[in-house]
Amino acid sequence: MLRIGPFSTDCRVLLAPIAGYTDLAFRLVCRAAGHRGLAYTELLHSRGVLEQNRDSLEIARVSEEDRPFGVQLYGNDADWFCRAAHRAEGLGATLIDINMGCPVDKVTKTNGGSMLLCDPDRTTRMAERIVRSVRVPITAKLRLGWSECRITAPRLARQLESVGVQLITIHGRTTAQRFKGAANLDGIAEVVAAVERIPVIGNGDVDSPQAARRMIAHTRCAGVMVARAAIKRPWVLREIQESLATGRTPPEPTVLERIRLIRLHFDLMRRYRGDRMAMIVMRGRIAAYGTTLGHVKPFKERVRLMAEPGDFDAAMDDLERAVDPQWHVVPLWAFAGREGAQEPLETAGNEAGV
Ligand SMILES: Cc1cc2nc3c(=O)[nH]c(=O)nc-3n(C[C@H](O)[C@H](O)[C@H](O)COP(=O)(O)O)c2cc1C
Predict the structure, then answer these.
(1) How many angstroms separate the Cα of 1 from the Cα of each of 191, 241, 242?
(2) CB of 11 within 8 A of CB of 36?
(3) Does 112 lie in the same domain as 23?
């Protein structure tokens, strides 16, 4: 059981905040793929939330079907943070997360994101004010420190706990590292050991039930957060959760089930963001989804080149008709040499011969 202040859940797998990815449409896709745990919005500038600029409103879009969820805020001004937290609370957020790990220049140049790791005392004072400004739990997502020689996360995590922060997520890399190298499990373990009562969530390179077990066994963290693996395989969250809960990993979804999730994603984006945006986003995402489907190059190309939403539907209709319902990946021979694959193919194993 994961207890975060007054909120508790038996799901120990969290969908990470991922800028450009974890909008409402994608979070609902993860739910449809079986995710029951916390899911985060991408980072939102505390000032943008207050000024209600269009991007921030888009990112902060919520739905009753997406529960529990956290709104992640970044910035470096306690007043802005408190007022933005108040607004996020009004949206029904289960909790509010403070970004203390973003390495991107745009964020760190304004002293936000992982710059907050560099001055633990000031960051703690700011967090204390935010904790006091709302009723929902405040959580924080950290990297290990700015660089190898400036590891501050254990001390900062302990201080944040002492002022009422209810959960720490720790990405096992430094800011300087960005995404290089493997996540440092010893570093995560030090943060787990540094706090007394609150849960610590381990993050970094968790892409399977095995990786999640390794993270938990090595660090004694209370749960795991998944980012990049979920972009390609939204069902990985459920796989990990079920494996942790029961010791068994559920079967991978079939190609047909995956296609239905991709279609759901496109439909939700059309609903929430309009046709133009849905097409722009899906033209990019199809590459990531495609890697899980196997040899579907002609269909990826059709999606990439779509001129209107109907082109996406037609490509998916053709793909659905052409795959064997038992397949977990499309084999190499299925569409070999069929650039465009406009016509459904006859495939071995597809008795209907479509
Ligand atoms: C494209 C991209 C965008 C990200 N955006 C955010 C963000 O908005 N807030 C945040 O705290 N972390 C963000 N992260 C970091 C992830 O949440 C996570 O800490 C990191 O990817 C390590 O987890 P993974 O190995 O499961 O991907 C982002 C990562 C990526 C790759």
Answers:
(1) 20, 12, 14
(2) yes
(3) yes
Give the separation between CA 276 and CA 25, rounded to whole angstroms: 15
pLDDT in tens, 104-152: 999 999 999 999 999 999 999 999 999 999 999 999 999 999 999 999 9
Instruction: Evaluate: CB of 72 within 6 angstroms of ligand 1.
Output: yes
Residue owning tokens 């797998």: 13
* Residues identified as active-site: 102
Ligand 1 centroid, distance to 17 Cα (angstroms): 6
Q: Are residues 257 and 237 in the same domain?
A: no
Owning domain of residue 293: 251-349
354 found inside a domain? no
Specify the amino acid at residue 29.
V
Q: Name the DSSP class of 286.
A: H
Residue nearest to atom 31 of ligand 1 (CA): 228
Structure tokens at 223: 């749960």
Cα 43 to middle of ligand 1, angstroms: 10
51: left (phi over 0), alpha (psi -120 to 50) or beta: alpha
pLDDT tens figures, 141-150: 999 999 999 9
Nearest to 288 by CA among 18, 13, 12, 11: 18
User: Residue 335: beta bridge partners?
Assistant: none
In a domain, residue 42? The reply is yes
**204 Cβ below 6 A of ligand 1:** yes
DSSP string, 90-146: HTT-SEEEEEE----HHHHTTT-GGGGGS-HHHHHHHHHHHHHH-SSPEEEEEESBS
Q: How many domains does the chain have?
A: 2
**Ligand 1 atom 2: residue of nearest CA:** 18
User: What's the confidence (pLDDT) of residue 335?
Assistant: 80
Predicted TM-score (pTM) of the model is 0.94
Q: How many CA atoms lie within 13 A of 61 on its CB side?
A: 16
* Cα–ligand 1 centroid distance for 49 (angstroms): 20
Strand-strand pairing, 2-4 and 7-9? antiparallel
pLDDT tier for residue 337 given thresholds of 50, 70 and 90? low
